[in-house]
Amino acid sequence: MSSWPSFAAALPAWLTVLVCAVSGACCLHRACTAGRPERGPAGGEAVMALGMAVMALPPGTAPWGARILPVLCCGAALHAVWLLRRGLHHTHHLVGSLAMAYMALAVYAGGGHGGHGGGAAGPPLVTGALLLYYAAYVLLGGARLVAAGPAASAAAAGAGPGKGRGGEDGEVARACRLAMGTGMLAMLLLM
Question: On the chain, which terminus has fewer CB atoms closer than 10 Å, C or N?
Answer without folding.
Answer: N
